[in-house]
Amino acid sequence: MRTILKNGKIYVEKNNFQEAIYIENGMIKQVGTNEDILKNYSDNIIDLQGKTVLPGFNDSHMHLASIGAAMTSCNLTTAKSIAEIIQLGKNFLEENEGLTVLYGRGWNQDYFITGEKRLLNRLDLDKISMEIPIVFDRICGHVSVGNTKALEVLGVDGNTVIDGGTIELDSEGNPNGIFNENAIRLIQSVIPEKDDKDREEEFLKAANYALSVGITSIQSCDITGKESQNMFNIIHNIYNNQKTKLRYSHQFNFQDIDDLKYYLETEYKTGQYDEKFLSKGALKLFKDGSLGARTALMLKDYEDAPSTKGVSALTDEQLQELCNLATEHKIRVVTHAIGDGAVESLINAYEKTMKDGKNNLRHGIVHCQITSMEQLERIARLDIPVMYQPIFLDYDLKIVEARVGKELSSTSYAFNTLYQLGAPISFGTDSPVEDCNPFPNIYCAVTRQGIDGNPIGGFYPKEKMELQDVIDVYTIGSAFNEFKEDFKGRLKPGYVADLIVLDMDIFTIEESKIKDIKVEKTMIDGELVYER
Predict the structure, then answer these.
(1) For residue 334, what are the CA distances in angstroms to 276, 363, 389?
(2) 102 touches 464 (CB < 8 A)
(3) Among 391, 396, 193, CA closest to 292
(4) How far apart are the C-alpha atoms of 170 and 176, rounded to whole Å?
(5) Are 466 and 415 in contact (CB under 8 A)?
(6) C-alpha dihedral (406, 410, 413, 418), degrees to nearest 10
(7) Are 499 and 55 in contact (CB under 8 A)?
(8) Residue 82 contacts by C-beta under 8 Å, 6 or more apart in sequence?
């Protein structure tokens, strides 16, 4: 199939824009002026009418299945108080009669403006219902709360201990319903398993949303533990039957060495991947938690919580064992590390897997939020890819100085510094922690401001990035993580025709409007997969 797009403002690479593009059999054959393209070809012409065209975005870290699940669960993101959360839960039960378990996600105590500003506990959720189990996840995904019924069903008491996680206790030594890190799996086990049909529908619903906001490739963590083989099968079925064109690369999470060994003997050997639409991907690990929940692992105590350094979801010994085994099998490792303590451990672990100081497998860091200048320089020197989420600034700029102090804050969320040091960086959203829409993400990277436009001038403005650099790290930069930078992420001959058409010119509008850009068309392999 042949297609021509003419009369556009097509971003090819930095400071290189063209008018027209010729696509044949899903590949870009030529870019140039209208005259250059149209004198040779006259097939299936789309008139862009001056609209701006970018490569499709590649979200370098998200959870697609969880996006779909969030679309069908109790949405708590709007809650401004504990009372509102309780009411949202009651409303959801009334609207969905017959539920045997209530699951919700998205609350954030830092957004509470009335009543107590604290973490939820089981007594709060008991006010919704004591008849059925209730599980409400914090927006970060690193804290989960269960009601009394959920704890009873699971048999959780003051003596229950989980390696790499915490079950918090009240003043009488009983669980207060708050679970973090590895303990979250326990409280979430009370939620009934969905059938394959439901999970597939959720996956595809999320995929369609991603396409609608201009994402053409994702690197997604939807597999957790060896019990997730069924999710592998669901994803295989989706791609074997071409139910979506969204390009998908796994980031499978195995925190336990035996789970990784099981994967190596099963899916790793038998799974069929074309590496174009469905890729085997990387091992995804968690070293720590989140800044908002104070479970990010710090080298020193939190400024606003002395005696607290966060949570280590893996010991350094466990982390090293997993990295070594993955490296031995030539599997890329990407690890969640937010605090500087977690980042330090991770750099050390990766360096021990390298031969002659070369990071040939491109082992990377997801988040990498709290960092010292020394750590940034080591990351660049060792060529460790970093998967950043600029949209996190929208919330974190309100708390980071209180959590870690001004000095450490000044070298944190250091997108521009690390980019200028030459480290491979990429952007994503960690959705559903944040919306996977790329444009608010780009806005935060360019302005260093929250969605509300504050602070004026930007948060540590030296870390503002140039717009074209942001687009590059969000496209070909993310493709680098997958070893696919030679055929994906550019609108140049020899690259796949994955592109988006915008309703506003991102290069000329006011920076404040970037977050409001909408996608008019999305193409993958030269095929129109979304039209507004």
Answers:
(1) 20, 6, 14
(2) no
(3) 396
(4) 5
(5) no
(6) -160
(7) yes
(8) 112, 115, 116, 118, 120, 124
Alpha carbons 177 and 143: distance in angstroms, whole number: 10
β-bridge partners, 32: 20
Q: Which residues of 83-118 are buried (b: 16+ CB within 10 A; e: fewer)?
A: ebbbebbeebbeeeeeeeebbbbbbbbebbeeeeee
* For residue 432, cis peptide bond before it (omega within 30 degrees of 0): yes
pLDDT in the model for residue 97: 87
H/E element holding 317? helix 316-328
Place of tokens 């979250």: 184
d(Cα 284, Cα 420) in Å, to the nearest integer?
26
What the block records as the tokens of 214 is 């201009």
Percentage helix, strand, coil for the chain under 3-state DSSP, each rounded to 5:
35, 25, 40
Domains of the chain: 2-55+494-531 (2.30.40.10), 101-188 (3.10.310.70), 194-481 (3.20.20.140)
134 three-class SS? strand
Q: Which of 396, 393, 479, 470 is nearest to 438 (CA)?
A: 470
Looking at this protein, which amino acid is placed at residue 129?
S
- Sheet arrangement for strand 45-47: 27-32, 20-24, 2-6, 45-47
Residue-level pLDDT at 274:
96
Give 95's Cβ-side CA count (13 Å radius): 9
Local structure of residue 457 (DSSP, 8 states): T
Structure confidence at residue 529 (pLDDT):
98
Sign for the pseudo-dihedral over CA of 494, 497, 500, 501: positive
pLDDT of residue 40: 76
> And the tokens for 159?
């003596």
Smallest CA-to-CA distance from 314 within 267, 273, 255, 260 is with 255
The angle, 0 to 180 degrees and rounded to 10, between the axes of the packed helices 257-265 and 316-328 is 10
Contact at 8 Å (CB) between 322 and 172? no
pLDDT at 352: 98
Residues in the chain with pLDDT < 70?
none
Burial of 273 (0-12, 13-18, 19+ CB in 10 A): middle
Say what the pTM is.
0.88
